[in-house]
Amino acid sequence: MKDMYDAFQLNNGVENPCIGFGTFKAADSKSAEIIRTAIDAGYRYFDTASFYGTEGYLAEAIKASGIKREELFITSKAWKTEMGYENVKKAFEKTLETLETDYLDMYLIHWPLPEEGYKDWKRLDIETWRGMEEIYRSGRVRAIGVSNFLPHHIENILQNCEIRPAVDQIEFHPGYTQEMTVQYCKEKNIQVQAWSPIGRSALLNHEMLMEIADSYGVSVAQLCIHYALQRGIIPLPKSSTIERMKQNQDVFGFEISKEDMYRIGTMAQAGWSGLHPDFGSIRGASK
User: Percentage of the chain with pLDDT > 70?
Assistant: First the structure.
């Protein structure tokens, strides 16, 4: 990958840009300004979800930018309350309406369980995926996939699907690399995407990461983003200033050594959100 407009090819042939802009909590400003700034900074791949409350702001920002729809790659997700065969189809229609577009580039099931301890998740996921397959066949989404699914959740889909998931979007960053899920997806030809690729403030001030980043003349954030890319994973960083937005794109001028990749990949857990697909929010967070 030479710049953020290069792409990974998904298992259905769709080209997925190698860096996206995450819009989670971008709605906190109650405006499209941050997203419009990201467009001005050069981002063309935007990750949103019905739960984020940013679909409308993304539509507003795109309209104001004058950028053609076909120049953008837009992903959204069906929330826990939108699972099920009929529900997910209705949710997709509402998302298209809110985004003011007639198609999505990617649509994902946001979480495998609608609530902590839900026993009948296998049946619900299969029904939801059947609705996703119908949406895909309609030609109004270019790729379908999952988010926050672990291997046993994906295996349930693979054993009962006609169209394989193209993507699994998971929390991934130094200090929380979910190696078993990453390896499983690699074996199954499912592209991994990383939400929260920079982790949290604990990573930005992590002594080892600061030392490694300094050796390459980059910031810890740039190191984390490049680490994902070097692992073949699509990072979805988010930022609120144009300076950091551009810095998060400037991650292609160096290569992390094998030794440093091992050091980063084996560091103690840090920066974890506290979210787990089977056990809910351990720390009261939400994503």
Answer: 98
